[in-house]
Records
---
Amino acid sequence: MQHDDIGGSGYSLDDLSAYLDRGRQPAIGAIDGNAECQAVLDSLERLGALSRELVEEDAGENPAPSGWLDRVMTVVAGELKAGKDIPFPPLDERAGVTITEGAVRELIRAAGDAVPGALVGRVRLEGDVTAADTVDAALTVSVTLSVLADRPIALVADEVREAVSIALERRTPLRVDRIDITVDDVHLPVIPAAAEPSERSDDE
Amino acid sequence: MREPLDTASDALLATRAADGDARAFEALVRRHGPFLRAFALRLLRSNADADDVVQEALITAWQKLDMLADPSKARSWLATIVSRTATDRMRSARRTEPIEALELPSLDAGPEASAMASSRVRALRAVLAELPEEQREVWWRKEVGALSYDEIAEQLEIPVSTVRGRLARARQFVLERMEEWR
């Protein structure tokens, strides 16, 4: 193969290589219209795909040692993002009880996930959460949602709104004005092909 | 009934993890951990180093999740962090021992590996093993880690033009050698 002028296009393999990595943009007619250039670009793409296949094969043949995931998760659990403290109205002058913003988010996720076909994404608490016990603060809770493909979206969203509202009322000091639900994702009941079975061990 | 997080998209898991949900992060690690370890093993050629580096990279990722602009790209974002962590590790190892000494001959020559692999993957393993290290380290980062030229240049501390040149030379070599396998 002649590498400095492929198919008489005036472009070298170096040029094609860089063109491929720019996503073939901006389009160059002399390359796009040249059969030999196209064949080389396709071959380069296949080599990339084959390299990824090679590494996936390595991954399949070389499972993580026992306890590997646990060690990551132990560090992660030690760095939980608690956020601000939200005080409960005092029952007694001498005792203060607070719940963290992080715990409220977790409550909201758990309430939403418990609705069939719903998976909570992002949770936002907008407003002054730390003053929620003293004023009728205008707190807005925004929740994004992924809905199982065959479930009615509006119904699931409503059920999540209701479940979140009940959870917040019963279990937090927050007075919530609005709960905004945005469905921005859909998921399938099957486990994605890329998912790997559990490799956690209980012995650490 | 709770939907298992394993059915969620990467975007949802990364978003939840950025909100502080450790379970969502764990699901993400479960899904991509095997790939990230295999990618790191390609960069480092030592299982112990690869396991260490990916653990360190994942903890960095957990701390920096709010900097992930597009949660649907979580996998390549993680790969970029793994590559960066591996590069740092190799740079400090280079001071003490020659890198070729770390080569694991079994990585591409094991009988089990070759029995499992498709013939084309097997051929690619052999061809890539012939590449000079400076081209191979660019190859893995670009083709498997999906890093940009700029990211590779920054991590390896070489000019972008050198990244482009090494990748083009590697592609030329691999293309020619793979044609012989057809």
Note: Residues 6-61 of chain A form one domain.
---
Amino acid sequence: MTDVTLNHLQQQALRVREHILRMSTNGGCFTGASLSCTDLLVYLYNEVLNIGADMLDNPSRDYLLLSKGHDVPALYGLFAELGFIDAARLDNHLSVTDHVYWHPNRAIPGVEFHSGSLGHLLSVGIGIALDIRLRGGSNRVFVVVGDGELNEGTIWEGCLTAAAYGLDNLIVIVDRNHFQANVRTEDLIPLEPITTKFEAFGWTAHTVDGHSFTALEDCFQGALVNAGRPTAVVATTQRGAGVPSIAERADRWFCNFTAEEVGNLIDELHGRAAAELTSETLIVR
Amino acid sequence: MIPYERLLLDLVQSDERIVIVTAENRGHMRSLPPVLGNRFIDVGIAEQTMIGVAAGLALRGRIPIVHALASFVTLRPFEFIRDDVGIAGLPVIMVGMVPGVLSDGNGPTHQAIDDVQVMRGIPNVNVFCPADTAELIAGLPELIKAGGAWYVRYLAGENVVEQHAPFAVGTAETVVEANQPVVTILTYGYLTKTAIDAAGILANRGIATRVVNMRTLKPIDADAIVRAAAESHVVVTLEDHFRTGGLRSIVAETLLDARLTADVRSIDLGHTWFTPGRLGEVLDCHGLTADHISNAIAHHVEHSRELLDA
């Protein structure tokens, strides 16, 4: 990866995180989960997916399905940066005049399918991948799932089916931020060893640092896929990544900050003073 | 090849959008896998995955026709249907095998007698309940033309009338006509044949009875229900379904909307699961034979007349 590319990705990720923080007020959003997948999404949309503002309806595009839909501020922030949507639409967050709310809506250009209830989009992705294969296409389907989402039985049901059909055009990415909604995954329903589980289901599995663009580059540009097998990439991330005062905090899942706190958090994001947070933040949705 | 298999084969061959999907339910399509090739997808015993896969296929322009036992295609993946088919408004056709009393000896887990209730409650999902093979074969292509998502209460039984009225979505058909009917039986699906037989018995007892096959329960033919209330003394709803949420409820909703009331006698499975057994015995046990039904209706008519005379 060139320094220019690396710098571009880093700067874009910073701007996406700013968008997320700006959506974390006046009703709030799922800030922590959005921050954990930001670098992943930035990397995939810039460097991996065959997608662009001019080909959002092109049947030969690559598909990305956000199954852990509560991290949609990261997706929308990125869509604004990529020109899929006007950045001004982010100001419509939680306004009934637009479709920008806590989970994805297909009315937003670039959203392939809505989500909200966990464990749905792997099967939808399998359907898309099967159709691509029926038509002899070479495009791929990426499904981003949360690690907590791996509690859902439909994930493993889908893993069996995808392996049975040898869907090597299907790639599941686990945002491994180690948190469920309220608690750490390993304290509740332990998931490890995740890659071993996928492998036992007939998948090829990798782990990668989900915040390192060079590590992501090595993973996705390397020998990612084995012919005849679906692929899982377990991306190790940190909930709330980029903003230390909300990182890895169980009570910063859903955040609704004051405008002043958002300003301070953006300062913190840019390496200036740590934000002092007084808002009640443990709002269980 | 049974008629349903021939229909699916014709659909697949004539329309590149059609894909046949099943959750390892192949009883009525055993000959299809080899002839349909990759347009036949069996996801295994995984009904939720099947509905999600169908949504994905539909997003790519396909019209999947998916299959499982009626209780498993409706209830197990209910949230997937609601979210991925209903909210999305995708054209997925969900075929429920052995619905209603047809699950005979399987026991309550397999009794799809709440299927109309749950499926019609989902926005964008419609409901088709054919009365026999001919109607299934005539209706399915019309559902595809009409578009949208459909639940099909599968029935491939003997034909109940010599010639059905041309099939149209949202249009009931009168299968037994009667001048100045005392009774109109509104029904659908398997019990349509029983209703026809019961109407014959009632006619012999001097109770002129019309029988209307509702065909699609959503959209419903509201005019047919209003006409039944207006033109007959007693309206009977007959269904192998819980009393709640099926045709009785639809009739109540329709009459409420029309600011009408009627003398309605509902014959159905009440409020609990039926006793499993051989189909003939189940029907007898639950009052769903032509004899039981005609007796119940005659009794109701007599009682209503006494009330009117008093």
Note: The two ends of chain A are 40 Å apart (CA to CA).
